Fold this sequence. Notes:
The complex is a heterodimer of chains A (250) and B (238).
Chain A: E1 3-9, E2 18-24, H1 33-46, E3 69-70, E4 73-74, E5 96-100, E6 109-111, E7 114-115, H2 119-125, H3 147-157, H4 164-168, H5 175-186, H6 195-208, H7 219-223, H8 231-249
Parallel strand pairs in A: 1-5
Antiparallel strand pairs in A: 1-2, 3-4, 3-5, 6-7
Helix pairs in contact in A: 2-6, 3-5, 5-6, 5-8, 6-8
Chain B: H1 3-13, H2 15-40, H3 47-59, H4 64-94, H5 108-111, H6 113-132, E1 145-148, E2 151-156, H7 158-165, H8 169-196, H9 205-233
Antiparallel strand pairs in B: 1-2
Amino acid sequence: MNFTLKVWRQKDCNSDGHIEEYPAENIPIEASFLEMLDIVNEGIIDKGGEPIHFDHDCREGICGMCSLTINGIPHAREKGTTTCQLHMRHFEDGDTIWIEPFRAGAFPVIKDLVVDRSAFDSIIAAGGYVSVRTGAAPDANSIPITKEDADHAFDSATCIGCGACVASCKNSSAMLFVSAKISHLNNLPQGFPEKDRRALNMVQAMDEAGFGNCSNHYECEAVCPKSISADNIAKLNRDYAVATVRKALA
Amino acid sequence: MNALTRAVLSFWDSSIGKKILVAVTGVALLLFLPGHLIGNLLLFAGKDAINEYALWLHELGHGGAVWLARIGLLTVLVVHILLTIQLTLRNREASQKYSHPATTRASRSSRMMIWSGLTILAFIVYHISHFTVRIGNDYNGSAYLTSLPGHDGNVHNVHQMMVDGFSHVGNTLFYIIAITLLCSHLSHGFSSVFQTLGLRSRKSEIIIKQAGRAYALLIWAGFLSMPVAILFFGYGSI
């Protein structure tokens, strides 16, 4: 397969970036998107050029390291798929493909397609944990929890923190990420006692990190590779209001 | 600073706090619109019906109720607009543009909320100047006084004011554009209220979305029925 790539190139965070065009020729149909970039990079290196820099790690869709906004959509148009699990068979031979970094003010570009997502770490540091030692994994059913709560916590826990929600949002809001992390812990008996403090502190950290706010566009839910539901955002809004009232009356 | 003050200030400063206040003020406006519409639809019940309604409204609570409602609505509107502008500016600062942008799910009405909102604001200023303060017309003049059965003396002829107001092509076109944008604004705003106040779930999502569309459509059809009937079908003309 042959493609024309329009790739964002940027020397470093202090330089201006621009789109450059590259041919991607003789790409096997079974190649993944990142393997296609590997092939293009080999050609660039052979010609003595600077390869296209991009983030990746497990290439199994579970680590949250790969990013890339492909044709304007983080992780591309395939539902519930990370960039590393996207395959070239989903494109047409001869397609022009636009590849840009995850864009947000809180995700500065480090180089080319690599962005700094450590703003997420500051949010997690503000409350995305359980403060006491909870021991090793407990025996099944030794801690009472309803099936619904366990399922909800698990669904939220599947968030890999890739940042696609932020990159897809017209406001660069991190509400889906923050609400998923909060739902994960607040639904569990171990995390419940810190429910209010967690909601207040993580939302404050989110605002301080420079993310925008939610306008209920639901782009985040549509592109999330783990299909995290925007119901979490509604729940966070409610939890935040309740936590504020409790804190005011404390 | 005590705990209450700290909590209130951090709520006011937070993105979620601001959005919740936008939603709460939005609810007040969503409730006002059907009331305003039902009252105005008395236009179709005849001259005396709407003139009597207007008189009742202005005499309610010895004339205090209408002012209480006006001050309340104005406060709600100002808070709604100021917070929305603050949130929009914060969003502009937080986001960056793509060279090749794309949209997957966001509806057109959700993406143009600030622009539909600002157009509605311009419309509200015009609407109040036109029919409430009555600037640039003679609706406060003696030509717009009429008798009302069961009432001594003359009352304001709201029926004639509406017929004359909507007989003007420019006015009516602006009303049609503004009410259409209001419909778009309400369609997204209605469902957003439930999401922002944490009342939406996967099960209720579709019902809320459809209810929002139905509400917006009813408001659109109701408010447009009057100018359209007067301008295009000659309703009320002698």
